[in-house]
Amino acid sequence: MLKMKKAVLFAILGNVIFGFSFLASKIALRTVDPVLLLAIRFTVAFVVLNVLLLLGAFKVRFKGKSLGVLIPMSICQPVIYFLCENYGLQYATSSFSGLMIAMIPAVTFLLATVILKEPFRMNKFAWALCSVAGVCVISVTGGGDGGVSVKGVLFLTGAVASGSLYAVLSRKCSDTFTAMERTYAMFAAGCVSFLAIAFTREGGNLVPACVQACKTPEFVGAVLYLAVVSSIVAFFSMNYAATYLPVTQTSSFANLATLVSIVAGVVFLGETFGAKEVVGAVLILCGVFMLNRADNKTAAA
């Protein structure tokens, strides 16, 4: 029971950190494009992880273990998810993107019943949809910033599918790999993949572009937050939570990130917080609280 309570705290921590990552990304994207940001972010994260590994802060052991589930998990998140999300935002309105990404907890709920054979309970699914509805209220009235193309729908569908599948696969391989081993594999995949994509786009200009970007103090601060806090700490927290909690429970916290991002925008960027944000926040918190209450009752039974 203590480990489960600790896992809930880690799930909340991870999603609160993710919420502030939207603010950091906005700051960093003033200097570089999304692909270069991803390359820098995951390279810094992987370098920091290896320094910590050499210092003995943690251990990883992949030898003798089957990588059959770990590799697809690492490709789903961060590689496919971040690429699909970034390109989806280019071809769809921010409000539509918010609606699509908000579906991840509900889709994860369904995938967990199919792949992990977790029991399907209609009341839990209804509370998951309540949290989704909260994001919908906030997003759907957010105003249009362009059209929604078929490309946008396809990319965002890919983001929802990969984000949901990651949560399920992380739980599935938690018996074989520790939370830190899963985190290490994810950032190895992210570093290699995003560097390769950035090099293909930038060619010989990749290093000069990175050096030029790092001359901006705001960019450096944002990248350090994204690489160390929002990557290493947050994803470790989520992988730890996935070790001890049902996927339906860990995914229920996902929309807290939306709520935190709104609060961060209000506090640090002077964005508005009106009636629709209040209604959306209530629905999100109600859905998360009631779904976890249902899970706690199940665990106690």
Characteristic key phrases:
mainly alpha, 301 residues, globular
What is the N-to-C succession of helices and strands?
Answer: HHHHHHHHHHHHH
Could you report the average pLDDT, rounded to the nearest whole number? Answer: 86
Low-confidence stretches: none
Count up the helices.
Answer: 13
> What's the number of structural domains?
1
Question: Helical proportion?
Answer: over 70%
Overall shape: globular
Looking at how many chains there are and whether they match, the oligomeric state comes to single chain
What percentage of amino acids are in beta strands?
under 5%
Q: Biggest sheet: strands, sense, closure? A: none
Structural class: mainly alpha
Radius of gyration: 19 Å
| Ends distance | 12 Å
Domain EamA: 6-139, 151-292
Family: Belongs to the EamA transporter family.
Pfam families: EamA
Subcellular location: Cell membrane
Describe the structure.
With 301 residues, this protein is mostly helical. The chain has one domain. It has 13 helices and no strands. It has helices spanning 2-28, 34-54, 70-91, 94-101, 104-115, 122-140, 150-172, 179-202, 206-213, 217-244, 247-252, 256-269, 275-300. The longest helix has 28 residues, at 217-244. The chain is globular and about 55 Å long. The chain starts with a helix and ends with a helix. The model has no long low-confidence stretch (mean pLDDT 86). Keywords: Cell membrane, Membrane, Transmembrane, Transmembrane helix. Pfam families: EamA. The chain crosses the membrane at residues 7-29, 35-55, 67-83, 95-116, 125-142, 148-169, 181-199, 219-241, 253-272.
